[in-house]
């Protein structure tokens, strides 16, 4: 923020009504907040996610009764709005066609000082028709966060998907297991450091009555 001609800093822009209500209700639980083009977002600590979620759901003026999605982002420790430059094959498609193997190179951004992952919740109020995004950072050496299935039962499969793809474990989940991949699959494909061309062949599926589980060859 820069000073005006009189040496005084301009006033901060007013918060959108929804974000103001959320901050008023949650108080210090909100670590960061941002609003851009009608998209309101707050960040909370993972140990406070259940308290924050319950308040967002039960407050009559907020009434976030619908959990649309649970997912995650692998920031590799960079801040939320971190961006990388276009990769070589995005900048020069002709070069990409001449060297198709380049498409399988793993190009990682530099690691940052923040917790590696962010778990993201997309909330909607069917009564007030407003939406909110909630983010919780989760470290790589302890990728766990409390499950919100006790508040929104629909989180069951959404959290399983996030566990499967990112390896984030949801404590208190009633049935936390992979939802797309077989249990013996090694790794989590949506992590940025997972090999682009990684393949793990498995046995042919022989139905739910199989005596032996499907395993890699």
Verbal overview:
The strands form two sheets. Strands 1-2-5-4-3 form a five-stranded mixed beta sheet. A two-stranded parallel ribbon has the order 6-7. The model has no long low-confidence stretch (mean pLDDT 86). It contains five helices and seven strands, in the order H-E-E-H-E-H-H-E-E-E-H-E. The protein has 217 residues and is of the alpha/beta class. The chain has a domain at 18-85 and 93-142: 2-Layer Sandwich (Beta Polymerase, domain 2), CATH 3.30.460. The chain starts with 16 loop residues before the first helix and ends in a 46-residue tail after the last strand.
What is the number of helices?
5
Characterize the overall form: globular
Terminus-to-terminus distance: 59 Å
The CATH superfamily of one domain is identified as NADH:ubiquinone oxidoreductase Nqo5 subunit
Q: What is the string of helix and strand elements?
A: HEEHEHHEEEHE
How much helical structure, as a percent, in the residues?
A: 10-25%
**Number of beta-strand segments:** 7
CATH topology descriptor of one domain: Beta Polymerase, domain 2
Examine the secondary-structure arrangement and name the CATH architecture of one domain. Answer: 2-Layer Sandwich
Mean pLDDT: 86
- Order the strands across the largest sheet as they lie in space: 1-2-5-4-3
Overall CATH class of one domain: Alpha Beta
Please write out the topology.
Layout: H1 17-26, E1 30-36, E2 39-44, H2 49-58, E3 66-74, H3 88-91, H4 93-98, E4 117-124, E5 131-138, E6 144-146, H5 155-166, E7 169-171
Parallel strand pairs: 2-5, 6-7
Antiparallel strand pairs: 1-2, 3-4, 4-5
């Amino acid at each position: 923020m820069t000073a005006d001609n009189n040496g005084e800093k301009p006033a901060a822009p007013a918060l959108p009504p929804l974000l103001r209500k959320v901050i008023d209700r949650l108080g210090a639980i909100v670590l960061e907040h941002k609003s851009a083009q009608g998209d309101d977002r707050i960040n909370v600590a993972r140990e406070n996610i259940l308290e924050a979620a319950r308040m967002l759901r039960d407050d009559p003026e907020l009434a976030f009764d619908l959990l649309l999605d649970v997912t995650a982002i692998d920031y590799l420790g960079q801040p939320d709005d971190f961006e990388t430059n276009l990769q070589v094959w995005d900048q020069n498609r002709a070069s990409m066609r001449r060297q198709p193997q380049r498409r399988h190179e793993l190009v990682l951004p530099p690691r940052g000082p923040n917790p590696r992952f962010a778990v993201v919740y997309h909330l909607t109020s069917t009564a007030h028709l407003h939406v909110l995004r909630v983010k919780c950072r989760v470290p790589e050496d302890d990728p766990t966060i409390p499950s919100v299935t006790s508040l929104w039962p629909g989180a069951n499969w959404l959290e399983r998907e996030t566990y499967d793809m990112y390896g984030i474990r949801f404590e208190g989940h009633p049935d936390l297991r992979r939802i797309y991949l077989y249990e013996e699959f090694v790794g989590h494909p949506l992590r940025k450091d997972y090999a682009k061309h990684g393949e793990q062949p498995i046995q042919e599926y022989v139905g739910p009555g199989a005596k032996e589980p499907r395993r890699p060859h």
